[in-house]
Amino acid sequence: MTLDPISPGVLFDHARKARIGLPEAVFCQGKPGSNLRDLMVSFGRGQGRPVLFTRLEPSVFDSLDDSLKQVYDYDPVSKTAWGEKCPPSAVLGKVAIVSGGTADAQVTREAARTLEYLGFKYGLFEDSGVAGLWRLAGSLEEINSHQVIIVVAGLDAALASVLGGLTPRPVIAVPTSVGYGLARQGESALASMLISCSPGVAVQNIDNGYGAACAAARILNLLPTG
Amino acid sequence: MTLDPISPGVLFDHARKARIGLPEAVFCQGKPGSNLRDLMVSFGRGQGRPVLFTRLEPSVFDSLDDSLKQVYDYDPVSKTAWGEKCPPSAVLGKVAIVSGGTADAQVTREAARTLEYLGFKYGLFEDSGVAGLWRLAGSLEEINSHQVIIVVAGLDAALASVLGGLTPRPVIAVPTSVGYGLARQGESALASMLISCSPGVAVQNIDNGYGAACAAARILNLLPTG
Amino acid sequence: MTLDPISPGVLFDHARKARIGLPEAVFCQGKPGSNLRDLMVSFGRGQGRPVLFTRLEPSVFDSLDDSLKQVYDYDPVSKTAWGEKCPPSAVLGKVAIVSGGTADAQVTREAARTLEYLGFKYGLFEDSGVAGLWRLAGSLEEINSHQVIIVVAGLDAALASVLGGLTPRPVIAVPTSVGYGLARQGESALASMLISCSPGVAVQNIDNGYGAACAAARILNLLPTG
Amino acid sequence: MTLDPISPGVLFDHARKARIGLPEAVFCQGKPGSNLRDLMVSFGRGQGRPVLFTRLEPSVFDSLDDSLKQVYDYDPVSKTAWGEKCPPSAVLGKVAIVSGGTADAQVTREAARTLEYLGFKYGLFEDSGVAGLWRLAGSLEEINSHQVIIVVAGLDAALASVLGGLTPRPVIAVPTSVGYGLARQGESALASMLISCSPGVAVQNIDNGYGAACAAARILNLLPTG
Amino acid sequence: MTLDPISPGVLFDHARKARIGLPEAVFCQGKPGSNLRDLMVSFGRGQGRPVLFTRLEPSVFDSLDDSLKQVYDYDPVSKTAWGEKCPPSAVLGKVAIVSGGTADAQVTREAARTLEYLGFKYGLFEDSGVAGLWRLAGSLEEINSHQVIIVVAGLDAALASVLGGLTPRPVIAVPTSVGYGLARQGESALASMLISCSPGVAVQNIDNGYGAACAAARILNLLPTG
Amino acid sequence: MTLDPISPGVLFDHARKARIGLPEAVFCQGKPGSNLRDLMVSFGRGQGRPVLFTRLEPSVFDSLDDSLKQVYDYDPVSKTAWGEKCPPSAVLGKVAIVSGGTADAQVTREAARTLEYLGFKYGLFEDSGVAGLWRLAGSLEEINSHQVIIVVAGLDAALASVLGGLTPRPVIAVPTSVGYGLARQGESALASMLISCSPGVAVQNIDNGYGAACAAARILNLLPTG
Amino acid sequence: MTLDPISPGVLFDHARKARIGLPEAVFCQGKPGSNLRDLMVSFGRGQGRPVLFTRLEPSVFDSLDDSLKQVYDYDPVSKTAWGEKCPPSAVLGKVAIVSGGTADAQVTREAARTLEYLGFKYGLFEDSGVAGLWRLAGSLEEINSHQVIIVVAGLDAALASVLGGLTPRPVIAVPTSVGYGLARQGESALASMLISCSPGVAVQNIDNGYGAACAAARILNLLPTG
Amino acid sequence: MTLDPISPGVLFDHARKARIGLPEAVFCQGKPGSNLRDLMVSFGRGQGRPVLFTRLEPSVFDSLDDSLKQVYDYDPVSKTAWGEKCPPSAVLGKVAIVSGGTADAQVTREAARTLEYLGFKYGLFEDSGVAGLWRLAGSLEEINSHQVIIVVAGLDAALASVLGGLTPRPVIAVPTSVGYGLARQGESALASMLISCSPGVAVQNIDNGYGAACAAARILNLLPTG
């Protein structure tokens, strides 16, 4: 047997949506370029097969053929793309995404874009870090009008604890790699969230806005539709 | 000012239940013994104030006066105690607690006891590790009949990924400190759960069965009552 | 040369007080018992030489002769002892010690006892963790009436960031080893404090209440006397 | 809701100066370029709103319009910029900044520039590492004529301990990421400073010259004015 | 003695094949370019001396003279090259290489290419991660028809445990550096494999497809020939 | 549902032997005592069901009833026990277990006892560390007369590399937690083995002699019987 | 083959002294008790075979028969024992052992005792930490009259850098596990010594006073005899 | 005071040579370019002031004026430069530098170049890794004819232990950052050397060939001259 270096054998998990309520997504980072291109050709607009591409670097997207780029909705901040979105969900629920600062934008937007792709509604509450508590206090009531809360924060991630102590909603916390030195690429924010002094905060991997949206979707899918 | 070594100034957060839907709990580990005793006197059965005590070592509980022990429901496996439970919740939902092995019992039971204390229903599915997949396969349908799933696993924690790929339910994963060497007191199980190849798995701190139950409660509190 | 196992050659730094404003202290942990006993005999009450003993375990103190114990003021929570205190300072300033919870008592009290020994005034604000923000809010004005603030907190140590964003005072933050799992014996609280989103928070080693008091003393010694 | 990728919702904390005595600063690293440009337009010279920009890479500053660059005082070594400085402080105090070597220049200068921006006086004592103790000895008296000392050092950071044992002043220690191998990007210098054998040394995050200046400012603001 | 910067003194271990059954290989990463070129000239096609070059970056290979490139079989995905292969082995055995996803291709292919170079047969089963168990289930019988199994997986590496619980074959597990955040460049996958809940899984260094093939070869060399 | 603290729900994997060639074993560490006792009653001599108990502390074994102890073959060095062994294997192969020193005895013997339990033959070559190479040199020929080699070593684990460079056999390396300081409870030995300069060394978790024996068994089961 | 749990096969390296100038030593920690007793019987006074026992806990030594204890010179601070010492060396050289504090006594004394056992002369300079530089300054000239310097220090280990900058002698640095929190059981002291800003400091494992003495002996053995 | 970004205040330690026998060196990594250029102008050939520049990247050296480059002896493999060398030492001793492989060349050569600069003699024994023990065996006698041995090795660094067990000479071990995955940029090689099973191996920081040469120089300076 001799290896064909072009086309690693992809086994697409099309049954995932039926099995767990979430369609498969393509994690682009580290995938060979030719492999990504093949996948993007297969799942463009008009194919009737919604697939989300995450961690798709602008330089990679820019290198695609124009015809291919035109059938994709690409956002360079969140590094996400899709050819088609899932149909809107009818559940009576929406997600509040609260972030510590604008430096967290990539992750905040990855969560937002994933929710949009999955057909869910959300509200954005950026730059709400606890160094200036008045910012969070001013929007707390509106945040609590959402059914699920995603908290995105780097550095000490104190926002997760403060908000967790102020809301009865499910809180999904996403640490970000913002910061330097002891921020340790987000490891310290992750630890803060996992040992939050507020009970019942649930945590995602560092910078995993996509995962937070999926966790929120699993909860929203339990709610009544209307 | 001269310090009184006996009674550190406790500020009990009685408003927590109203604010976030979860009553305050007492984390006993590391608290001075006299302080614990004072708290247990205050919150025993018949006081009308439900409080959960977690991480209460058997040796500490055994050292209490008999009269105090009699007004507490104490479980030495989960190391939890309460004087009174919260009233049963009317929500139409229950939690499946799935564990990798019987060595995870302390954490599995801490989650179960916390749910019981909070007034929620649950089912236990222990010893379901993926080294023998037939065990999980045999109970998957019953597990999926619950609204929320708590996965408790140590070692490689592969159970979270496998189950996360088989259920549409919210999955709250709790790594345990079971194992030795590279298990690193649960750090490796934690990492496995955070980087699960199944999307939307939400994670708690190592051995934090209490936190998993609280996270489940935040979700259950969104569901209709019946 | 043959070793005498009894009396390692101690070189006491009596000039320290004149040089840096702080008398030498004896860190007892790990010191051979016979060495500790010799030192305690030398520095008891009535010798005119104030020395603070820190990390002196109750079991070690209890093993001393009664006559020696009687000339020492020992506190088992903070594990500190002195034969004589330094004379009261005349500076116009005092320290607020704010802690996250009663489980931090050993460190909180080590800071308080060290300040008392050095002759400074302080106020204690325990159990002020951010999971219930009303506790901190209620005492903020009084805290700010002190010139220096010591913050003692374990777990996610969010208290340092929240308080750092609410006070113009110098903030000396001490992480504690309270917690389990990702608390990592205080490493996570330490990291949180070092990467606080509030500017100008200065940090001590984990559980180092003594060091926090010394850092506060260096500041207080700059203030006018009255 | 569809995301606008251009302008994440900034909530500027203008009240910070009144609340904690330090105006808000903009941490530029990782912020989207368009967001930075908007902020720099808002806070240039003549706007009457002093804001400090830190961690602003020369390549980013160079990419700005000439007209914008002309209203900013930018220093490429410290990577700091401001449109306007705060008015000079009237406090009777100044800061000594002592560094181990010229390789620490970025951090040393970030501290110095921040103090200049905040309106405080300082003196610089660079290249004073303990491998040649005569350098520190020669300037010790002059260093001690300042009210607050900032120590900047990488590698083993022994300078903090040596200086801490020679001065009664508040010592704010900043570890730097200078070195390789076991220097671990400054983690070892940080640890050395936190476990200094000299009491009362207070520590900042790795390379955080800005934070050291803010901590010094909190102290200086306690001093009498003249 | 003055150093010649061009030709570090190479001592080639030609006796390795006779001693341990595996010819020496050249690990190219970090080797000076001139040294690599000298080695490639020595071991090209027609020299009768099979040598495998691993971790040979495309940019390095591309910089070689065309005449040299033509005598090498180079694969840019696995970054391997050889001038001549070893003669085919006559053992009655072959290797199944099973990978979690196509992002693992570099490692998967390094194992495959090394086996081809050594003269062994193998089958490839890519994209078999446990998030969609049906993929593994569908090929299990065919996988078990091989004598040795190499498992290549990143992230949580749950595939090693699941497959280890389904096959009696020797399992050689290779963690990959695929993933971000808590994936920690493959450290977490490595830990998962080492603490697999399935017994007898043997592990290689992160991304070491070459080593996995060598370990498989040591086993295959025990089997009867036919 | 109310928890019964006595009998966690065990699901024994009796089909494991048929599926993967290795019967299930009971990892005793951390299991509740009552649970262990129940299991040992079920699997004692004469029950026809061979089960291996590992990590069974002498203090736990000693606390059993005498009647139960008499039906078990227990070894306190390896901390292993069985009621019945598996029938002897007929494969034409045996295992050499080579250790660095006698301080590795617990792990060396756990591997040996597991092989004995599984029905395989082995030879022991203890105290063969490379600080005195003559020890290994003297037994190399005899070691190579075995089909599989298990190397057990702590500290720098150089033995794995040296032996890996001298034998064509499959090498299964087990790091041990012997040593202090930078030995880091075996983490450094583990790393040394994983990055061995000899190719094809396969590694087990720290102190996992049981796993090494299972990995050897998977290989031996491929060999012809005689 | 059935294991004899009593007597693991010891292979004593009697040729070590001839080969490397240092006789073999017995590292007692973790060795089974019966094994230690056998070794101590073999190497007691009058056997003509000098062997050093290190890390021999007082509780283990105390458990020996009185007759055996009487033929050993045991020191409980350094935890070392020997039956016979090596004959005095005739080299014209001696070792200065300089320590940071009396809490380092176990390591300081292990180095001293090992040198005594090997037949070398040394001088002790304890409690010379840099927090009070006058202590080191006062003995520097005498320290430099020795040919080799061993520096023993915990915490920030600044002593190694300061002394390394003041002496032309070979400096062998031993970090100790003294301290808490960021001391990390000596890891931070180790790092400080390895990245010392003074050139040519050579480092031993944490707490390895024995190794430091051996490294000193290797140097002393180069010197002329007299 | 306004900062001059061009010329940080250098305090050159010209007295170092007299104090510790080693002239000051300039560690170039991370130093601002203008600062480096100033230093190189000051210490070129003909100035009578020997200074060694280490970690001087080829790209930095190439950017210098031709006239400046011509007065420097620069070696791009070791990244070292000098204008003048120290006069040759008259000591009766030389250093053997033994390396594991040619990938260690940068470090091996940095040690060699530093010795050449300091005026000492040395011999090079590269590519002597233990995977092929015959290479080391073949040159052992010649290696032992040197007075001091520097061992340079990456990966598992087993060479230090093997050689340490075969030579009576002082052994200075330098770990290198060669390798990937668990090599952890040389941390694992460092640990292996620090916990070597051969006694008296002294260790330098990762990749610190310069430090190893300085440590060797401190020893050589003790030897008689001839």
Explain the overall architecture.
8 copies of one chain form a homooctamer. Chain A is an alpha/beta fold. Chain A folds into 2 domains: 16-82; 94-220, 3-Layer(aba) Sandwich (Rossmann fold), CATH 3.40.50.1970. Chain A contains 9 helices and 9 strands. Chain A has helices at residues 16-20, 33-42, 58-62, 66-70, 105-118, 133-144, 158-164, 187-194, 209-220; strands at residues 25-27, 52-54, 73-75, 80-82, 94-99, 121-125, 148-153, 171-175, 201-203. Chain A has a 5-stranded parallel beta sheet with strand order 6-5-7-8-9, sandwiched between helices. In chain A, strands 1-2-4-3 form a 4-stranded mixed beta sheet, covered by helices on one side. In chain A, helix 5 runs parallel beside helix 9. The first copy, chain A, is globular, with a radius of gyration of 18 Å. At the D-G interface, helix 7 and helix 8 of D face helix 7 and helix 8 of G.
Average predicted confidence as pLDDT of chain A: 91
CATH classification class of the largest domain in chain A: Alpha Beta
What percent of the residues of chain A sit in helical stretches (DSSP H or I)?
25-40%
The low-confidence parts of chain A are 1-8
Second-tier CATH architecture of the largest domain in chain A: 3-Layer(aba) Sandwich
The CA-CA distance between the termini of chain A, in Å, is: 56 Å
Sheet-strand content of chain A, in percent, reads 15-25%
Radius of gyration of chain A: 18 Å
Q: What profile does the largest beta sheet of chain A have?
A: 5 strands, parallel
Please give the domain count of chain A.
2
Order of SSEs of chain A: HEHEHHEEEHEHEHEHEH
How would the global form of chain A be characterised? globular
**Arrangement of strands in the largest sheet of chain A:** 6-5-7-8-9
CATH fold group of the largest domain in chain A? Rossmann fold
Number of helical elements of chain A: 9
Seen as an oligomer or otherwise, the chain set is homooctamer
Number of strands of chain A: 9
